[in-house]
Amino acid sequence: FEEDFYESFEDTPMLAAISTYVGYLILVAVGHIREFLKGIGIGVVKCMAEPKLPGFVPLYQSWESFYTWYVYRRIRDCWNRPVGSVPGAEMDIVDRETKDHGWNFRQTKVVNFGSYNYLGFSSNVGPCADAVAETVREYGVGTSTSRQELGYLDLHKELDTLVAEYLGVEAAITIPMGFATNSMNMPSLVGKGCLILSDELNHASLILGCRLSGASIRTFKHNCMKDLEKKLRQAIVELQPRNT
């Protein structure tokens, strides 16, 4: 396994670590100076401070507000880019460009390549939104029950039929989400007395499905066929049933 798989992490350079801590201390020192000047009426106050009312416990700790105003505000442009619209094919984000040291950001439009919005259902305008509105008017917002009862509509049957025809099989069952596909259907395929050989880096849905099934679980090294064969041979030696 060690010959086929290698993983390493780069150590933080000493200069980068020292400069980071020094920069953090400078921001804290400058923040205290600005707080002092604000207290004596010098400087522009751009933040909303919590009023000090007698008899009321403050909602925020003083350090929490201080850190947000004077430390986090100056470095949040490194990763914080809030979405300002629906997460469609294109979306508006608050860009990292600012002219007042992080108090305000300008809004810009970007192309969305990192979303689960495969079919465009998150957009509030367009053909998908119109089709959803028409379907809701005809069928309602949900079935409120499982397929075994009254939750199987003609739309579901039509979709299952189309999927089966596309795959060239006799029948198919469509499930609305990937997590439920793995976690809820694996227990119906395997159970107690069965053996599951699972990749150590499998998704949480697969891990949950394995546990819910009650089957014996053996994990093997990620994408390592040699370790998989070893675990399979070991399971056979330990008299695992033949229906694995």
UniProtKB/TrEMBL annotation:
PANTHER family named in the record: CLASS II AMINOTRANSFERASE/8-AMINO-7-OXONONANOATE SYNTHASE (PTHR13693), LD36009P (PTHR13693:SF3)
Single GO MF annotation: serine C-palmitoyltransferase activity
Lineage summary: Eukaryota, Metazoa, Spiralia, Lophotrochozoa, Mollusca
Organism encoding this protein: Pinctada imbricata
Cofactor requirement: pyridoxal 5'-phosphate
Lineage: superkingdom: Eukaryota
Gene Ontology CC entries for this record: membrane; serine palmitoyltransferase complex
Family named by the database record: Belongs to the class-II pyridoxal-phosphate-dependent aminotransferase family.
Keywords on record: Acyltransferase, Membrane, Transferase, Transmembrane, Transmembrane helix
Signal peptide: none
Residue spans crossing the bilayer: 12-30
Chain ranges of the Aminotransferase class I/classII large domain: 108-235
GO annotation terms (biological process): ceramide biosynthetic process; sphingosine biosynthetic process
Protein name: Aminotransferase class I/classII large domain-containing protein
Gene3D superfamilies in UniProt: Type I PLP-dependent aspartate aminotransferase-like (Major domain) (3.40.640.10)
